[in-house]
Amino acid sequence: MRAVQITRFRGPEVLDVVDLPDPTPGDAQQLFDVSTAGANYADTHHRLS
Question: What Å distances lie between residue 12 and 9, 19, 23, 30, 45, CA to CA?
Fold first, then answer.
């Protein structure tokens, strides 16, 4: 699975695209296949905190 991770605080250069293992659902959980997802203001603001 490809994901964007924030590993340090700064500008947009800290947004790293990484490959992660596919998640596995636990008991009473479901796994959804999401092809695209957006980022809102709070997501981008978090990297500056």
Answer: 9, 19, 26, 32, 10
